[in-house]
Amino acid sequence: MAEEIKKQTLSLPTVVPAVAIRDVVMFPGMSLPLSVDREKSVSAVELALSEPGKYILAVSQKNAEIEDPKEADIYHFGVIAQISQNLKMPDGSMKIFLQGLARARVTKLEMNEVAGAWFATVDYIEEEDDNSPVVQALMRKVLDEFDHYARVSHRIAVEGVSFLRQINDASKLADTVASNMLVKTEQRQEILEAVHIKDRLEKILKLITSEVEILGLEEKIHSKVRAQIEKNQKEYYLNEQMKAIQKELSQKDDFQKELDALRVKIKKNGLPPQAKEAAEKEIERLSKMAPFSPEATVSRTYLDWLVNMPWNHTTEDVLDLKEAKKILDEDHFGLEKPKERILEYLAVSKLNNSLRGPVLCFAGAPGVGKTSLAKSIARAIGRKFVRMSLGGVRDESEIRGHRRTYIGSMPGRIIQGISKAKSMNPVFLLDEIDKMGSDWRGDPAAALLELLDPEQNKEFTDHFLDVPFDVSKVMFITTANSLANIPSTLRDRLEIIDFDGYTEYEKHDIVDKYLLPKQMKMHGLKEGQLEVTHEAVALLMRDYVREAGVRNLDREIGSLCRKAAKKIVDGSKKVVVTKENLHEFLGVPRYSNFATEENGVGIATGLAWTSVGGETLSIEATKIPGKGQLILTGMLGNVMKESVRAALTYARSRGYGKDVDFDKTDFHVHFPEGAVPKDGPSAGSVITTALTSLLTGLPVKKHLAMTGEVTITGRVLPVGGIKEKFLAAYREGVKTILYPHTNEKDVSELPERVRKELTLIPVKHMDEVLPLSLEGWKEFEAKLNKKHGSKKSAKTHKKSLPARVIPAKKTAKKAVKKATPKAKKTVKKAPAHKAVKAKAKKRK
User: Fold this and answer.
1) Is 682 a catalytic residue?
2) Which of 747-761 are b and which e, b meaning 16 or more Cβ less than 10 Å from the residue's Cβ?
3) Could you say which of 60, 299, 725, 773 is catalytic?
4) Of 102, 128, 111, 6, whose CA–CA distance to 68 is shortest?
5) How buried is 545 (Cβ within 10 angstroms: 0-12 exposed, 13-18 middle, 19+ buried)?
6) Using CA atoms, how far apart are residues 519 and 508, in angstroms rounded to an integer?
7) Is 88 a catalytic residue?
8) Helix axis angle, 185-192 relative to 170-180, nearest 10°?
9) Alpha helix locations (H) across 574-637?
10) pLDDT by residue (tens digit) across 429-446?
11) Closest CA to 553 of 616, 617, 506
12) Is residue 802 pLDDT above 70, yes or no?
């Protein structure tokens, strides 16, 4: 075969007309009927017919949709073919019959503008005979797989496979199989371009195997679908027969019994008119459905939720204020504001039964008792308690429910919680309301606007139920660590109650009355087996736990109980934890009490507010030789950076640091704990104090902290979070706090004990802050005033000097000022004036 092709190619032309064919790849030995209607293709066929051999190159087009292909749109590997038959059609198109002769690689393809057709310069591929055992084995495997492919596809005549078994030439077999496979053009082209017979057979075998697997999967899927359809038809037929039989026997099936039970529930539960109408309508629809159809499942689920909602069931409030106060005090120490608000609600409810449920927001640091107080409120007033965590909720459907458009749709978690409580007036806790998000699925905060609005929630409509439900009797309580993350429109609907951090004295009482007894009971310790001294608890809070709440304190008490339990099991009768042996139980202290003790030159302590309570903030400033730059480190926000620049501007404007060359000095201000983001204007006063201390060399007083925004003129402006900041300072051992005088109203909220033990000084201006915060300020101010006084006297002495020693320029200027307009011109032109200027230059 290879010799025949070689002899044939010697007689074939090297430059031939080319025709681009679409959706098909031609192989040697293949007969291809072709309809030619494009002008370039028709011209190429006519040119080929005008030659004696009628040879034409058939090359495949990469994209069949391109009507006028360019050179890049055509494969550069095709088959030289001979036109055996042709027929000219009336519309100018042609029908031809091609006979493939040999593979040809296109070395040059160009458009002949005169002839209007493609011409290709080609190299013919010389094929070598390969009768090796590997090729023979591949031929047999290809034949077997192609036979399987023909049987599975149902698109190829099985009789044609027997014809293929008579072909002994490997190249002819490969081309014949490839031309009969129903595969993509790219895959056929890849086989055509495989010159070596072994590679060609391997590609064909791989392609056939892949197609057989895909066809097998198609058949499997088709069988499943057909079986399912037959099953559904069978079930429907049998159900219809069953209905007819039961109708004859006057019997009711389970489905009818279920519908009757739903009708009884509708009457018994006393649904409101709108809900009753929706339920009856849905029952009628359900009765006409097949019992096991997907639609019937959705309808059943809807009716279950609608009928079983507590439309008229409420729990009776316990309106005994003394009993309620007793329960609240049993569960929580302190928290007077929220307790007072609940007692007020009960008192008003006792006088007016139609009072709507309040919408409260408990805002405060973690561990201060927000969630647990909500549980206690439910217990105190005798209501059911439901909790829903909103942390990380991004889908509006979590609040309003899913629409009944698919199987598995459910009501929102609000309706689910009320249904679970089986009461229209539970205490409903929406925990972590500040942790919600929003994305393409909707904004849950916007969905809460209707729910938490007392004017709208009487007709709250869940997407699943699709009928109004009255949630105005529900007592909604939300919790948040930071109000800044709650949208203003939602915050407007909330009655916010701040939960401040506990003082050290309050925590002592909490440990004695609540935490220690609870942890001892949890760890199996009896009364008297563990004793924790008052001094040990104080050291525990200062060296191991620093927080606004008591969550971590509870953990550490639990750790002490575990250690004590181990000692009791080992044989000890009683374990006493004291100040001296506390580190044996809890290890190395986590904190050190040196925040305000480190105050010195360029080092000061400020106060900051965070979402978990107040904190002390250390600030360090230093100066180094440089180019007058201001270097800021410590992960600062833009507002705090501006505060540092304003502080430096104020210090320079007041003349502090006269001995410092600001153009050759860099100032570096650092805020420790560099990994923690910091921002806000409240550090203005402490930054100004640290920079002034650096410029004057005066150290900042020990055990002193301050807060307040500062302007470039030195005014101290009010800031927020005063209570949290002062409690943090109190925990850290601060003795004196300087704060803006406009925040005096906030100081009244502090516990009386804290106010007595702290020295709280309101200030209006930095002129008040610096004498109170820097050691030796009076002496420094006296020296500064003395220098300013000597400068003033020098200026006075200069003014009293004789006229002859006054610089010539100033004399000339005075003369010009006193002169009339005409005299000014005269003075400028007078030679005497030039002489005065010359003398002045000489003096210089």
Assistant:
1) yes
2) beebbeebeeebebb
3) 725
4) 111
5) buried
6) 15
7) no
8) 170
9) 582-586
10) 988 888 887 766 667 877
11) 506
12) no
CA distances from 501 to 75, 328, 375, 480 (A): 78, 18, 20, 14
- The string of pLDDT tens digits covering residues 622-632 is 999 988 899 99
Residue 84 in tokens: 């055996």
Contact yes or no for 78/189 (Cβ under 8 A)? no
Q: Copy the structure tokens of residue 117.
A: 């057709």
The tokens 């006296």 sit on which residue?
782
Residues 183 and 172: their CA atoms lie apart, in Å, by 19
List, for residues 471-514, the tens digit of each pLDDT value.
888 888 888 888 878 888 888 888 888 877 777 777 888 888 88
User: Which amino acid does the sequence have at 176?
Assistant: T
DSSP H/E element including 744: helix 744-747
For residues 255-268, average pLDDT: 78
- Assigned token pair, 70: 């360019």
Structure pTM? 0.54
Residue 19, SS3 per DSSP: strand
pLDDT of residue 805: 32
Map tokens 């290890």 to a residue: 587
Q: Is the confidence at residue 826, as pLDDT, over 60?
A: no
- Catalytic one among 682, 685, 693, 773? 682
**Alpha-helical runs (H) found in 318-466:** 321-331, 336-351, 370-381, 397-400, 413-421, 444-451
CB atoms within 10 A of CB 4: 11
Helix 370-381 / helix 336-351 crossing angle, nearest 10 deg: 30
Interatomic CA distance for residues 152 and 659, integer angstroms: 98
**Torsion from C-alpha of 341, 347, 350, 352, nearest 10 degrees:** -70
Whose tokens are 């057909």? That residue is 226
